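Late entry, evening session. Most of the bench is empty. Finally got around to the prediction I had been postponing all week. Sequence below, unchanged from the version circulated by S.P.
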Amino acid sequence: MVRVKEVIVVEGRYDLNTLRQVVDATVITTEGFQIFRDRDKQAMLRALARRRGLVVLTDSDGAGGVIRGFLSGIVEPEYLRHAYIPDIPGKEKRKSSPSREGKLGVEGMRPEVLLQALRRAGATLDETSAPPPSGTLTKADLFRLGLSGGNGSTEKRRRLQKALGLPARMSANQLLAVLNIITTPRELEELAGGTEPAGRDAT
């Protein structure tokens, strides 16, 4: 599977599912137009962009263009790349009828078309299928640092998210994916203020 360095932003979960069968990457959805009023997610995208860069991959219809334009307005241009899919008439298999404009969206694209779109956007693709880099954070790290699975872990996690400029409404799994982009295990340990799980006293 091809690894992509940048964070990829798509519109919905079906786009996300399609892309995850093609690339190994952090993929975030805008949930359609919900991104317009979700200031927490907007802040998260800006933070991720500065660390890793963003690739916007929306449908080629009018709605996709509106979302793309909005993201262009909230993320600094030097951290943003745009991937475009072609106009292909048709409908996705799960739908009973075509979209208003009669075009296939990201979820209906063939893998080679999506990869070509990412290459043309200038995304950083690693096609060697190398193993993940060492130092990757795991769920065990979150537990060890008291950020999940213990008394007070939710509050501790939210304090960390606030310190990092991340949304308050994130699950432990979402937080883990983002932390692996913006920090290292050592940095996280310092930010978390120790290694004892919440609700336990150090001995």
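Two things to note before I forget:
The longest strand covers residues 7-10.
The radius of gyration is 19 Å.
Will write this up properly tomorrow.
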